[in-house]
Design a protein that fits this description.
Length: 61
């Protein structure tokens, strides 16, 4: 997760905030990544499909 995000930052610049789902497999590592870059990491509401709608729409799911 961190490598593709780093590539996006290199191409588009550092965002102020990134919203992700609550995937526990990478949340803590990604939070550390965001802290190092000064990015606010916001997670969606657990078990809430409507809370993830923006993310899923952006990914074309």
């Amino acid at each position: 997760i961190c490598y593709p995000t780093h590539a996006c930052i290199a191409a588009l610049g550092v965002p102020t905030e990134i919203k992700t789902d609550n995937g526990s497999g990478y949340t803590s590592r990604f939070q550390k990544f965001c802290m190092n870059w000064g990015i606010s990491h916001v997670t969606g509401i657990p078990h809430s499909p409507t809370g993830q709608a923006i993310i899923k729409r952006a990914h074309g799911v």
